[in-house]
Design a protein that fits this description.
Number of strands of chain A: 0
Radius of gyration of chain B: 24 Å
Strand content of chain B: under 5%
Order of helices and strands of chain B: HHHHHHHHHHHHHH
Number of strands of chain B: 0
Number of helices of chain A: 11
Oligomer: heterodimer
Structural class of chain B: mainly alpha
Order of helices and strands of chain A: HHHHHHHHHHH
Shape of chain B: globular
Largest sheet of chain B: none
Largest sheet of chain A: none
């Protein structure tokens, strides 16, 4: 019997496929240089020549959105990759070894969660400098706590099961048990949470860029295109509306995908 | 209850020290010495500020001495002086807290007023038109950047329609108006920031109430209540609702850091002179003593908020109290 794909998963995939495809093929989708300034063609409304109009420097917004998508998605994927990796290792150690190690790690998680996320991120940006690498690393390293709790809970429920006892019985090392036996069986909820995380990371990057502390111009990201549109809201609303809708589109895509996967795994 | 409270308070002590350690660690993030980031990369901070920073944090001493000195000072409530205007950081932060608290309490209040009925209606008839519409609304609500909604709302209600003020908390010359008008004036200034923040948070909360309510409705005692012939209204509101709202207390506690985070964005957009705005200005101006102060105080506020939520939960749910005393 063929398994039916959840409609939510399908919808999420379609939304994401379009954006990922456009970002990946950016140079073929639009031949315009996203950095090329044409002051004589500033603030042209969307039309056949400029699909999404131009900004205050006469740059083509469609091209900027395409290249901005690369940056925004890159930030999302790298940041979440990092936070998932850290969360996996810390959560697995905590759950597997238990006892003092576990309570020390969980206390650290409690402490990290006391900090309002944006405070921690902005403070880090103030002490470092806001550039692409720093932004990805900072968002990643401030977002691992949820994953760690999730992994710990999964490991706790799995580690007393027979197949883990058997692995221990034949003398497998803790590292082998964790990485070869425990984590592969705990992947479902982790993938769902990582999928949601990519959406959140994109939202955080856009908020940072909006505050002027994210990816710095002239590199386009959806957040800083939106931030630049703020100044010309009265005369050129498309500069604000287009990047906002794009962020919403992508985050919605990740949420639908995550919800669809969660539903098909939990058998709803 | 007393024992539970004592245990809970004791458990906060290591967390407090953890908070100070992490905040202290943040300062040493800057490549090289913290003062390098201050002086070389940012012209706004003068040589004088650099010397002040070295003195304030004792940066010429070993790290553990720096930490213990700094810790001793913040335990006395001394966070140093702002680079910007030389005023004590503690006082600068304290005078900003009431505004941020007011904003967040209003947001929580209105969110609760709206999310509870929305959640109940959704749980009452799962799959109904209302339930499906609100599910759609939830998905879109999660995906919308709140600062974007805030800007669009400012443009629509403030600029285009001219209905509401879009920045600050008072109109020009409001201090000369009678007291009642002053309150009304501030209330008008709060409509947009509170409205947008409530809109942003509503999706998550109503979803939570809905799933909590559906869990409760599956319980045996609800079947008993229905079996003995109680009206659906009584079953829902007298038996189910109370238990379904219990987890909401925890959620409120957990959502505090998010609310405080959000105040940075809202206060920046609406020019509200709260703690978030102070933090944003300090980050922009690299005013390190203020950044450090707000980092510590923001985390302590969350810690206290969680304590309040736990106490409220223990008061509302005897199972927690007794479990705490037994273990």
């Amino acid at each position: 019997m063929k398994k039916k794909i959840n409609p939510l998963t399908m919808g999420g995939c379609i939304l994401l496929f379009l954006v990922l495809g456009a970002a990946f093929l950016a140079p073929w989708v639009s031949r315009t240089n996203p950095q090329a300034i044409h002051l004589e063609k500033a603030l042209v409304p969307p039309g056949p020549e400029h699909l999404m109009g131009t900004d205050q420097l006469g740059r083509d917004v469609f091209a900027r959105m395409l290249y901005g998508a690369r940056i925004s998605l890159l930030v999302g994927f790298i940041a979440v990759g990092l936070s998932t990796l850290v969360g996996l290792v810390i959560g697995a150690i905590s759950g597997y070894f238990g006892g003092k190690v576990d309570s020390a790690i969980m206390r650290l998680v409690d402490i990290m969660l006391c900090f309002p996320a944006l405070f921690l991120i902005l403070a880090a940006v103030a002490f470092l400098e806001p550039n692409l690498t720093n932004i990805m690393v900072i968002i990643g390293l401030t977002g691992w706590m949820g994953v760690a709790r999730l992994v710990r809970a999964e490991v706790l429920s799995l580690k007393e099961r027979d197949f883990i006892q058997a692995a221990r019985g034949i003398g497998a090392s803790p590292a082998r048990i964790i990485f070869r036996h425990l984590l592969p069986n705990a992947m479902g909820p982790i993938i769902v949470s990582a999928t949601l995380g990519v959406g959140s990371a994109i939202l955080i990057e856009s908020a940072l860029s909006f505050l002027g502390l994210g990816v710095q111009p002239p590199t386009p990201s959806w957040g800083n295109i939106l931030a630049e549109g703020k100044a010309t809201l009265g005369v050129a609303p498309w500069l604000l509306i287009i990047p906002g809708l794009a962020i919403c589109w992508v985050v919605l895509g990740f949420h639908l995908l995550a919800e669809g996967m969660r539903k098909s795994w939990s058998g709803e | 209850m007393g024992l539970y409270l004592a245990k809970r308070l004791l458990s906060m002590i290591p967390v407090f020290f953890g908070i100070t350690l992490i905040s202290f660690g943040m300062m040493h993030l800057a490549p090289g010495k913290p003062t390098d980031a201050v002086s070389d990369l940012n012209v706004k901070v003068s040589l004088q500020a650099k010397e002040q920073l070295i003195k304030l944090y004792g940066l010429d001493k070993p790290v553990h001495v720096q930490y213990s000195n700094w810790l001793r000072r913040i335990l006395r409530g001394d966070f140093g002086r702002s680079f910007n205007d030389g005023r004590p950081v503690g006082r600068k932060i304290l005078e900003r807290i009431p505004v941020t608290l007011l904003l967040n309490v209003l947001v929580l209040l209105f969110t609760l007023l709206l999310c509870i009925p929305m959640g109940i209606f959704g749980a009452e008839k799962p799959g109904s038109l209302f339930d499906q519409t609100s599910t759609l609304f939830v998905f879109i609500g999660f995906a919308l950047p709140t600062f974007w909604i805030a800007l669009l709302a400012v443009d629509l209600f403030g600029v285009r329609l001219g209905l509401l003020p879009v920045s600050g908390l008072h109109s020009l010359g409001a201090d000369r108006l009678p007291a009642a008008h002053q309150v009304l004036d501030t209330a008008r200034h709060l409509v947009l920031p509170v409205g947008v923040a409530v809109f942003g948070g509503l999706a998550g909360y109503s979803r939570y109430v809905r799933s909590s309510m559906m869990d409760v409705l599956r319980q045996d005692y609800i079947r008993t209540a229905r079996a003995k012939g109680l009206s659906e209204g009584k079953v829902l509101y007298r038996h189910a609702l109370r238990n379904a709202l219990l987890p909401l207390i925890t959620l409120l506690g957990l959502s505090l850091p998010g609310l405080i985070s959000g105040s940075v964005i809202f206060e920046a957009i609406f020019a509200i002179p709260g703690m978030g705005r102070l933090f944003f200005d300090s980050v922009m101006g690299r005013d390190y003593p203020v950044i450090m102060g707000i980092l510590v105080i923001g985390a302590i506020l969350t810690l206290l908020g969680n304590l309040l939520a736990d106490i409220a939960y223990a008061l509302a749910d005897p199972r927690i109290r007794y479990a705490g005393e037994l273990s």
